[in-house]
């Protein structure tokens, strides 16, 4: 019985730790968007052609945060 | 999974209940599995998305007017937007594969937006659905690369610009990142949409707390406002994720068409 309780406890702690990854992804996404804006304000004429690159960068940064979310979900419901 | 929340007495319903797949007609008996041919809510909403696309693009543009009607101009705007993106990202010879990319974009866009209707179901929250799309792109692009360039396609992993000593290391990293592509491609879409819908339902479960406790007078207005805000964000995310999925498809297509760059 204690082992089951410890496993459940570990599950919740692990899911909570995995949620830190979302915060890390938020830093990454903020970095991408902030640097894009800083560059775009320096040279607005070149900004329009780079929005596709912006979204690709955002997507890659965000994907890793989603992986963290997935780990949390797996811990909560699959393990 | 569903029962826990009800027993706990906290949330009124489980935020992940909305992702359950159930047959459209009749109920599953306990222990009975879904057959592959059973029409489910996922089937229904994917079919509705297909019908909406046909309505917009086949019947909306039927008039072929020089001065477009409102519906026709919406269809033309979407068409032109994706066409330009394929041309910009995948290059001029990527335009040949525009129908495939446009189909992917429309399907994801319409499924995402139909899923935002309260009470509906979003098939793109299921990794099973997005994995078919993601791995489909991966297999198509890989086959295309080998068909077009033969063994030269492997030059994608062998960086000619880097120093010779580093090349094997980079090749290993490139191969790993190439095979992670379909996984991240599909999980990004499913994860984003699923997370957004789950957050909405978490706040929605806070809202009826006014019935349960005194603290609800504070919690209910905040959570209703939060649902509205998150809904606005989700509206944005639904479009952006369809766009991101499509633009990454274009990037992968470009890699297959021009592996040396």
UniProtKB/TrEMBL annotation, chain A:
<keyword id="KW-0813">Transport</keyword>
<dbReference type="GO" id="GO:0008289">
    <property type="term" value="F:lipid binding"/>
</dbReference>
<dbReference type="InterPro" id="IPR038662">
    <property type="entry name" value="ATP_synth_F0_csu_sf"/>
</dbReference>
<dbReference type="Pfam" id="PF00137">
    <property type="entry name" value="ATP-synt_C"/>
</dbReference>
<dbReference type="InterPro" id="IPR000454">
    <property type="entry name" value="ATP_synth_F0_csu"/>
</dbReference>
<dbReference type="GO" id="GO:0033177">
    <property type="term" value="C:proton-transporting two-sector ATPase complex, proton-transporting domain"/>
</dbReference>
<feature type="transmembrane region" description="Helical">
    <location>
        <begin position="54"/>
        <end position="78"/>
    </location>
</feature>
<feature type="transmembrane region" description="Helical">
    <location>
        <begin position="12"/>
        <end position="34"/>
    </location>
</feature>
<keyword id="KW-1003">Cell membrane</keyword>
<comment type="similarity">
    <text>Belongs to the ATPase C chain family.</text>
</comment>
<dbReference type="GO" id="GO:0046933">
    <property type="term" value="F:proton-transporting ATP synthase activity, rotational mechanism"/>
</dbReference>
<feature type="site" description="Reversibly protonated during proton transport">
    <location>
        <position position="62"/>
    </location>
</feature>
<keyword id="KW-0138">CF(0)</keyword>
<comment type="function">
    <text>Key component of the F(0) channel; it plays a direct role in translocation across the membrane. A homomeric c-ring of between 10-14 subunits forms the central stalk rotor element with the F(1) delta and epsilon subunits.</text>
</comment>
<dbReference type="InterPro" id="IPR035921">
    <property type="entry name" value="F/V-ATP_Csub_sf"/>
</dbReference>
<keyword id="KW-1133">Transmembrane helix</keyword>
<dbReference type="GO" id="GO:0045259">
    <property type="term" value="C:proton-transporting ATP synthase complex"/>
</dbReference>
<comment type="function">
    <text>F(1)F(0) ATP synthase produces ATP from ADP in the presence of a proton or sodium gradient. F-type ATPases consist of two structural domains, F(1) containing the extramembraneous catalytic core and F(0) containing the membrane proton channel, linked together by a central stalk and a peripheral stalk. During catalysis, ATP synthesis in the catalytic domain of F(1) is coupled via a rotary mechanism of the central stalk subunits to proton translocation.</text>
</comment>
<feature type="domain" description="V-ATPase proteolipid subunit C-like">
    <location>
        <begin position="13"/>
        <end position="75"/>
    </location>
</feature>
<dbReference type="InterPro" id="IPR002379">
    <property type="entry name" value="ATPase_proteolipid_c-like_dom"/>
</dbReference>
<keyword id="KW-0446">Lipid-binding</keyword>
<keyword id="KW-0472">Membrane</keyword>
<keyword id="KW-0812">Transmembrane</keyword>
<protein>
    <recommendedName>
        <fullName>ATP synthase subunit c</fullName>
    </recommendedName>
</protein>
<keyword id="KW-0066">ATP synthesis</keyword>
<keyword id="KW-0375">Hydrogen ion transport</keyword>
<dbReference type="GO" id="GO:0005886">
    <property type="term" value="C:plasma membrane"/>
</dbReference>
<keyword id="KW-0406">Ion transport</keyword>
């Amino acid at each position: 019985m204690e082992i089951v309780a410890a496993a459940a406890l570990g599950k919740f702690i692990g899911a909570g730790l995995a949620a830190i990854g979302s915060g890390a992804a938020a830093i990454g996404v903020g970095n991408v968007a902030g640097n894009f804006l800083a560059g775009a304000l320096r040279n607005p004429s070149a900004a329009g052609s780079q929005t596709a690159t912006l979204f690709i960068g955002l997507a890659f940064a965000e994907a890793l945060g989603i992986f963290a979310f997935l780990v949390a979900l797996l811990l909560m419901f699959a393990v | 999974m569903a029962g826990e929340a009800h027993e706990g007495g906290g949330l009124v319903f489980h935020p992940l209940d909305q992702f359950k797949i159930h047959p459209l007609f009749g109920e599953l008996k306990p222990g009975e599995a879904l057959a592959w041919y059973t029409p489910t809510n996922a089937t229904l909403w994917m079919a509705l998305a297909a019908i909406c696309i046909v309505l917009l693009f086949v019947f909306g543009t039927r008039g072929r007017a020089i001065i477009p009607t409102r519906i026709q101009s919406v269809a033309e705007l979407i068409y032109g937007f994706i066409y330009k993106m394929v041309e910009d990202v995948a290059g001029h010879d990527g335009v040949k594969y525009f129908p495939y990319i446009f189909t992917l974009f429309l399907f994801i866009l319409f499924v995402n937006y139909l899923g935002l209707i309260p009470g509906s179901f979003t098939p793109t929250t299921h990794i099973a659905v997005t994995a078919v799309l993601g791995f489909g792109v991966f297999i198509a692009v890989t086959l295309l690369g080998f068909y077009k360039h033969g063994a030269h396609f492997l030059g994608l992993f062998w960086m000619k610009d880097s120093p010779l000593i580093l090349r094997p290391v980079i090749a290993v990293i490139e191969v790993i990142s190439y095979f992670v592509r379909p996984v991240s491609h599909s999980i990004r879409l499913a994860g984003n949409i699923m997370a957004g819908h789950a957050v909405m339902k978490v706040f929605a479960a806070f809202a009826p707390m006014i019935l349960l406790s005194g603290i609800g007078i504070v919690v209910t207005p905040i959570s209703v406002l939060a649902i509205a805000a998150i809904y606005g964000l989700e509206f944005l995310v639904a479009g952006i994720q369809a766009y991101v999925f499509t633009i990454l498809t274009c990037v992968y297509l470009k890699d297959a068409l021009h592996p040396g760059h």
